[in-house]
Amino acid sequence: MRALRRLATRHAGPFERLYLVCDRLALALAPLLVKAGLERLERPAAVLESWTKGALFDCNMCGRCVLAATGMTCPMNCPKGLRNGPCGGVRANGNCEIEAALRCVWLEAWEGAGRMRHGGRIGELQAPLDHRLKGSSAWLRRMVERARLGSAPP
Ligand code: SF4
Question: If you average pLDDT over residues 6-24, what whole number do you get?
Fold first, then answer.
């Protein structure tokens, strides 16, 4: 899984383009999904999201996806779960102070961001994670929120 995660980071540019296409599609479908009712869609959406993003990004189903702002690297793979950049404990070789064999997730995020058109989003401040959302579909939440707001973030 770690190898696939690295692959996604190395090809963050194409993954970002795919993300933007899916995002536009999601925006178009959002009103329909709201009408269909969230409760009925939550379970299948969460399973599908877990399979696909689990395979590609080692997704932990945090419920509030920030991949597009973190170089297509899931920050929840950081042993400390940091969502706003690395801690002060990165080893001189770029590895994690907790898992010595693990390259710092944030170094990978930074490299991935450098390959993306909107890579500058890595500078966005991420809100504290709401742990009550764990296991729920971030895709669905994003679509519903956008349908209600009627606006499209980048
Ligand atoms: S940020 Fe959250 S939803 Fe996105 S890939 Fe990581 S754990 Fe999954």
Answer: 89
133, pLDDT greater than 50: yes
Q: pLDDT grade, residue 150 (50/70/90)? A: low
Count CB atoms within 10 A of the CB of residue 20: 14
CA angle 26, 29, 31 (to 5 degrees): 120
- Which of the listed residues 76, 77, 141 should we mutate to test ligand 1's pocket, taking the one with most ligand atoms within 8 A of CB? 76
Which of 79, 72, 74 is CA-nearest to residue 59? Answer: 74
pLDDT tens for 52-68 read: 999 999 999 999 999 99
Which amino acid appears at position 143 of this protein?
M
Query: What's the rounded mean pLDDT across residues 12-16?
Result: 93
Between CA 2 and CA 35 the distance in angstroms is: 38
Give me ligand 1 centre to Cα 22, in Å: 16
Separation of first and last alpha carbons in the chain: 28
| Predicted model pTM | 0.87
Tell me the torsion sign for CA atoms 145, 153, 10, 21: positive
Domain ranges of the chain: 2-149
Angle, CA of 76, 45 and 139, to the nearest 5°:
55
